[in-house]
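User: Hi! I'm a student and our assignment asks us to look at how structure tokens line up with a sequence. Could you show me two examples?

Assistant: Happy to help. In each example below, the sequence comes first and the structure tokens follow. Example one:
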Amino acid sequence: MKVIGQEPREELTFVFTDIQDSTRLWEVAPRSMAAALERHGEIVEEAITRNGGEFVRSRGEGDSTFSVFRDPLSALRAVCDLQLAIHREEWPDDAVVRVRAALRTGVGFLMHGDYNSSDVNRCARLRGLAAGGQTLVCQVTAERVPDPSPAGLSLECLGSHRLKDLLRAERIYQLRHPDLPSEFPPLRSLDTLPTNLPAQLTSFIGRRRELDEVHDRLRKNRLVTLTGAGGSGKTRLALQAAADMLDDHTDGVWLAALAPIAEARLVAPTVASAMGIAESPVLPVEEQLERELRSSNALLVLDNCEHLLSACAELVERLLMACPQLGVLATSRAALGITGETVYPVPSLDVPSLEDSTADAVLSSSAGRLFVERTAAVRGSYEVTHERAATIGGICRRLDGIPLAIELASAKVRVMTVQDIALRLDDCLGLLTGGRPSALQRHETLGALIDWSHNLLSDAEQRLMRRMAVFAGGCDLSAVETVCTGQGIEQGKVIELLDTLVHQSLVIHEDHEERSRYRMLETVRQYGRRKLRDHDELDASVRRHRDYYCRFVCDNAGQLVGPEQSVWLRRFDEEHDNIRAALACFRDRADDIEEGLRLAASLWRFWQARGYFGEGHSWVVEMLQRPGAEARTSGRAAALTTLGIMHHSRSAFREAVPVLTESLSIREELGDRVGTARTLNALGVIANEEGRNADAEGFYARSVALHREAGNRHGEGLVLGNLGNVRLTQDQYAAALIHYDQALAIFRELNNDAMAGMALHNLSTAHSELGHGDEALACIREALQKRSDLGDVVGTASSKVDLARLRLVGGHVEEAEVLLLEALKTQSGLGSPRELTNTLDVLSAVALAQGRSERAGRLLGASTSIRERIVYPRVGPFAKRGRALLSQLVEALGQEACDAAMDRGRAMTDEQAVAYALETEPPR
């Protein structure tokens, strides 16, 4: 990109340096620091000028310097020289100077003796990643440098990293020299910090004052809401402010995008998902959020709250009261209206003054720079002559500095000159206000700009734009081609039409793991939906969208247990908001209830894998309550089975059995062998967990026979594994081993790593009980690897617990404890007490092996109390191990002291037990 001020400027290499921990050094040793700072300045300036650099200025930051080179190798030599001089200098003991440095090659415009551009800003952010004594080099500079080895220099690649400007990752290199330190801490980039802030396609321009004000308010207040009309830049300002605050929030910065969801009940699950908090099957998600965030120093960004204002306000107020270190940054067209809220109205970008129409004046304003940089991105380069500057300034003023309006206008330079844009802009805004500029308001300006952009499109492009507004949270090309084509749009023309919408900034193109996705800004999407209503196309588009995602789920749900489970889980994650919209459409309309039931029934694997227990339960119940859902159809039977599985996930066995029994009756009536087999399997799982072994065996035997008749190998393997579980609880370990081996063979044949991981885990337990130590270790390690690779959080934690038990048996106490604490941290986040019990049992055995008998007693008491409360007794080998552990505790402590320790453990809440186990809370 070529952006210039007074004259063309060649590609330059920018160098930023500063002193690590200078503020602390000034506080502890002001006199020594004063002398050290002066010497530091001499060293830096001498190295820069000797190597042909232009020492620009310190940028008002005291120890920070900014230099410019026309040759990147000279820049590298200069920085190496100054780092060597700094390293060799004898500094006072209380003021040892270590310099951070960064180099970036790019372009900038010279204005009032200083350079500015997005490349300059990225160089400054790159410096922020460096440690004292470290020099970081961007990928562009590394590619421009000829072989630096004759100068004794080399570049070490540190991998790809995202800077806090939120742009895409790029490779970062470290300058190395034999006489300089080379070992530094890992870079604290967005890739290594706890955050889900998304990559942005364009740079953040201007807003320095607004960023500082938002930062100041966030540091003084726990809830800050950015308000403003659509297109005012609330979201982009919030994202950048949040990225800048990452170092202030040790537990991360998390974005919950609310624009795609339409229902108040989904606010809390969306927040939990954004923060990586797995939903509990037994606790309301709001309570789960409270528990997880109670001691968390995190920042939550809630984007686009206006259509869910009451639900957002209720959740935020609840979390802020329960979580004293949590901060919230919200964006909304209206304030949340709760106590403690600080409202920050987002102003327009500053615009060039009417009095000064020079290129410098345009480029010194945020609105002018935005227009010019976006124009250059479209054109490849763009020279701001004095003639153009006046026109650009007028456009920015006419658009009131509204970011989205400026982006839409600048996109027209593909087919117009800036003079053409200005003339037509006057026409469209004048028509809106009847020629009275004083009547122009921000939302009217933006509406007119979108209208103008829309009216410049061809009929087919207009149709595609409005039809794409039906998608929630974006879509892929296949969805556009299926949902939006016909009646004026040919499928073969979609890519060409999409290309125009992308170039007109009406649709945003993003790469998702080498797959293209498309989305609209919420303001443009709302405009498109209004156009759908105006053309009487909304109902038809919603139905086409609903049917497409129903087919997507029903056709691909089986992939969630296949060899590409992780890939398809991510695909379902991407389409989650569209799936929710499809469910809502089926629920709210009287037609096609059978398809709605099938859709809800098909989602249980996704809901279970991602921990959406409450949401899944609600959708199925709501669908079953719709008129027409009472008919004894395959859709109702499938939905009832899914509801039974949801009940089982929440340990609600009494509720599960009746709905599964009804499902079984319907499926037998319909002659649905595979469906009957699946429902029998679900009933067998519940019977086994309730200790009804004979009933469980009967259910499983019927189920496996039906799966074999139907040729359903996956179902056969699943039920064989469950038969092994029955044998395990009956202490028939050799028989269990046979069933687990059979199940594993089937899942290996099917390349199903998810189910193979479960079979290996169970196989390890059977081998262990038979005294096959080496085989047990090999199985559990393979199970752990498979589950970890798939991102199976629950399974990974469970396998860590079993591996820890085996390592403890082998005498590796410390290794066992590390594994258990890792698992416990994961399980405590899930909020499922069942997951905690085995971990606490094995931790009790570890404590006993360490000679900490009192701690062992408390942990065993806590585990026993949880089991009694949720009716989850130890059975089979778990019961045998529990009895052995209790006997050892009595021997170590004596009966009376053992009872007292266990009673203290029983008195703990689940949270207290976890805190005690993690040793983050002192014993009571």
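Example two works the same way, sequence first and then tokens:
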Amino acid sequence: MADIDEILERAEATDYTADNIKVLKGLEAVRKRPGMYIGDTDDGSGLHHMVYEVVDNSVDEALAGFCTHIEIVLHLDGSCSVQDNGRGIPVGDHGDGRSAAEVALTELHAGGKFDQNSYKVSGGLHGVGVSVVNALSEWLTLTIDREGVKWQLKFHRGATAGAIERIGEAAGNGTLVHFKPDPEVFSKTDFSFDQLTSRFREMAYLNRGLAISIRDEREDREAVFNFAGGISSFVQFMNKNKTVMHDEPIYILGKRALDAERMFEVELALQWNDSYTEQPVCFTNNIRNRDGGTHLTGFRQALTRVVNDYCEKEGLLKKIKDPVSGEDIREGLVVVISVKLPDPKFSSQTKDKLVSSEVMPIVQQVTAEKLMEFLDEHPNEAKRIIGKAVDAARAREAARKARDMVRRKGALESSSLPGKLADCQERDPAKCEMFVVEGESAGGSAKNGRERAYQAILPLRGKILNVERARYDRMLSSNEIVVLITAMGTGIGPDSYNIDKLRYHRIIIMTDADVDGLHIRTLLLTFFYRQFPEIIERGYLYIAQPPLYRAKRGKKEQYLLDDAAKDAYLIQAGTEDVAVRGQGGQVGGADLQKLVRKIVEFRSVLERLCKRLRGATDERVVAGFVKAAHLTPELLEDPDALDEAMQVVGDWLHVHFPSMGMPRMQVMAAHEQDGHHIGTSIEVKTRQSGVTRTTVIGGRMLGGSDYKLLRARQAEVTAALGDGPFAVQKGETQIEIDDFEEILDKILEFGGKGVQLNRFKGLGEMNPEQLWETSMDPTKRVILKVRVEDAVQADSIFSVLMGDAVEPRRDFITANALNVRNLDL
């Protein structure tokens, strides 16, 4: 054993002294290790968790009975605000010279959820939610309406930017939290309206009487949720694209006393459909538990026992030997479980799994009592539910026989890998990856270009079976699916599946970027989502991103991922030794690249705005009103301003589109049936390619975020260059142009000179070296990890796109038709 002198010598040699022990104070720990508190800061999950934390506090006010409305706004500058009409955070002195509101936002483990007086039930437990949001925000402004006074407190990266101020009078009570995520923390700071909408729709289902609205100023989108049916409506929403086995969801509500002071409430709604998968959604105090927990376990145990007891009592299982299993009973079941209790225990701060032991027996008891009552009182519905479970049991037996048959042939045995699989040499799954490749041709290139030590290649022939519409027995009759299952090594089915036997911890789908390739990718995603969800949950499934283009200039060759990368390449090449001069300034180099990217955004947003306007819109007219006129919604009611705007736009169109002819413009006034004036607009009729187009310029356009963004980008160009005409200078060549959008055209033209640009139609066009360099080399490739952010939305989209019902799929295509950029026919 080493003596003390030797130990001291080692300590001195490694320079590990008392000075190396650091204590992170206040919110410093959050900024140092944000993943501990909100999850990943790179993929968007942590970013949206910031909004959830703030909204959860408002929902807790609703649970306490003091809040009826929550409004979330996504602002143009990338910030987010959450406002409620609850009691408002207390503003009194906390005893140390700081207000209680400041303490709540600057100290970890500070809040009103630690006793049972302010909140009997709440989702927030640790007092870290809103303080974490403050710590990870570039700035945060807290506005509180309380007892007739409006207070405001500002923060910068978690630090207080001054004492709380009284800024006016307040008509009611409430709290407004306005924050902007810090780009120093988050690599991605764009909020997803769809992702947030899904979460807040759930919130509204779980809280009858609570209205939640979300508005996106960036894209003029808004949604308002308020559901009188509660979680029964939630179940119906989840089943809207499926055929249900009984008309109304089964609703269960029960309350039990945990002790003299604490109450427990369990609420369930369940309904069976004709699909083959179970879809449980669990909540504790309105917080989504993605991994379930003791409440889900208690429900499943009660469901299996009650159904089998009912079957035995009614003699419904005479045609099968054994009782139906829990898996058979839950086939096609959609269930929402919501429990409310004081001081729940979770597996982590993200609250993905409930671990409170007292929950399971109470959920079992309540479920068993109410479900047996339902089955006894509704014998017809009970027979349909049992009939589906019996069918599932028969299919399970058929699937077992099919697996046995396949095993006897050697296809599913781990010792017998499929012949088309080019396996790797490494045997540690954590170091291995398998590329699932479309077609034998691409598979051949991949096999020759791979790193044999750790990369396996599995080429698939044609399109695999759509498993959304097939049970195990039919699925196992598909040779390509059996080959894929065998290559993975996990087995399939309750009696043989073992995720720990997975042979590759990176399964990479690599298909062509055409319609057939995307369809094959979708079929594979459906297969993994429905049959191997744990592979996705563990982060083992990826999508390769082979490049669309190869650009060659001289001896230099570069691969470009997509159209955006192509434009960026051409812009960079086209701005070399180029300067643009206007009446008010000159721009070149890196500044010119930034300016051109703003023009790219201008053109994209203008195209989007024209698509959103009603009728056969003429993009030239919209561009004229954006660039030449200076209308606002208020000026629409000013006749002089309207006359001036129409004259200016008419002149602008005549200069820039002399062949289009003089447009016919007239002012239109809209009135309600009682004659009340509700708005004025300008109607412009033009001819384009022999077709009359009618463009309406009204308050809807002028007040929208797209119009504001276009005017902002135009103002930035004007600030840099002044007004036109513009001169584009490259070497000795100078080109005069009138419109700033033409700057982009000239830059792209310059960038394309001397460049050989090839578009790959498929992976088979690449030789092995190209495929390795672009799509398989871990040091250079781009791959996307497949994640399920919203299980309800994911299930819905798979049902719509891959299910039997045609109407929902047609509606989906119609609703998203305008969003198509490149349609490969």
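Here is something you could point out in your write-up. The chain is about 40% helix and 20% strand.
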